Amino acid sequence: PSFSVEILPEVDSTNTELMRRARAGLTDPVLLVGERQTAGRGRLGRDWKSDTQGDGGTLTFSLGIALQPQDWSGLSLAVGLSVVQSLHPDLQLKWPNDVWWQGRKLAGILIETASAGDQRYAVIGIGINITPREGDGLRTPPAALQELMPGIEAPVVLQKVAAPLVHAVQVFASQGFAPLRQAFHGRDLLYGQPVVCTDGTQGIAKGVDAGGVLLVHTDNGLVKINSAEVSVRPA
Ligand code: BTN
């Protein structure tokens, strides 16, 4: 797939920057890397601190792409799946869009949409921890890619994930999530686990439906979760 890559030494947030560009009209897909983000954003209004340099170094980038899918709902799963498939067989996905390794989060994804006239855009932001961070003794530090791929550097990671990601997003736009469902289940961290969702639903996670909606088997039967935070309930 054709796309351009741009690297900025400093930006408020690669997502924010591409949202501005999308609203002004984007033509070809752009992959924007921020070596430093001064106002990186996570999901649910959380901050995402990031710097490529030093301990706790991350790769932070966003893809801005014009998109006309019939149903946007499985996009975050398609993106997460593409990222884990292009990086390592041991990486797992925690619905709806975190990448985990050995019980710790390794990467996060923030997807936003914009429009300019009739055109709609997806801005897909990805932050991948590359170098391990010192723990503060209180909480376990997040996972970093160098723990499972020693010596790997951010530019190589970008090279591995970029083209497959653009391709995966374009395939998703034409075929939707359904063809990816089996592959998602193979990476699904929550499958078969006792979970509790922020909307109060509790039960056993049973994967996702053909649209990427989370299925939870509860005392009252199968419940579909469209959006919520989900955590594994300690036994
Ligand atoms: C999350 O786990 O809450 C999502 C984190 C997403 C972070 C990435 S870093 C690149 C892009 N720019 C941002 O401001 N956020 C996303």
From TrEMBL:
UniProt-listed Pfam families: BPL_C (PF02237), BPL_LplA_LipB (PF03099)
Parts forming coiled coils: none
Keywords, in A-Z order: Biotin, Ligase
EC number, as in UniProt: 6.3.4.15
Top-level class of the enzyme under EC nomenclature: ligase
Reactions catalysed: biotin + L-lysyl-[protein] + ATP = N(6)-biotinyl-L-lysyl-[protein] + AMP + diphosphate + H(+)
GO molecular function terms listed in the Swiss-Prot or TrEMBL record: biotin--[biotin carboxyl-carrier protein] ligase activity
Domain called BPL/LPL catalytic: residue spans: 1-173
PANTHER family in alphabetical order: BIOTIN PROTEIN LIGASE, BIOTIN--PROTEIN LIGASE
NCBIfam families linked: birA_ligase (TIGR00121)
Protein name as it appears in the record: biotin--[biotin carboxyl-carrier protein] ligase
UniProt lineage: Bacteria, Pseudomonadati, Pseudomonadota, Betaproteobacteria, Burkholderiales
